[in-house]
Amino acid sequence: MNDLSSKVETMKTIAHPARIAILEELTKGVKCVSDFQQFLEISQPNISQHLSALRHAGLIDFFVDGRLRCYFLKSPFVPDLLEVLQKEYKGDLPGPECCPVTKKGTYPGSRRH
Fold first, then answer.
1. I need a surface site. Which of 18, 48, 82, 93 has the fewest CB within 10 A?
2. Model confidence pLDDT, tens digit, residues 3-19
3. Could you tell me the CATH number of the domain that includes residue 50?
4. Which residues 6+ apart lie within 8 Å of 60 measured at CB?
């Protein structure tokens, strides 16, 4: 996953609360669909759709054990991304002292959003 468009597509795929929860759970180890049903409040078919999207994106894969599909993380990008998402940030970055081109003006501080 080196090109920017690939990373953007990966971010689009991950950008769902259920998918982030699935990926977080997979950082702990291999899980079956029934394991996800225990903590996600969505139906088994819906879980399977999320797993399919994550697998299609190359982020996870599975193996078959009897009648069970056991899912695991495949992409090394995922744990790094999840770590950033879990990080707590305190405050904003400081504003600039002045315009870097004209060397004039000052940042007025906070603004309405």
1. 93
2. 888 889 999 999 999 99
3. 1.10.10.10
4. 22, 23, 26, 51, 54, 71, 72, 73, 74, 75
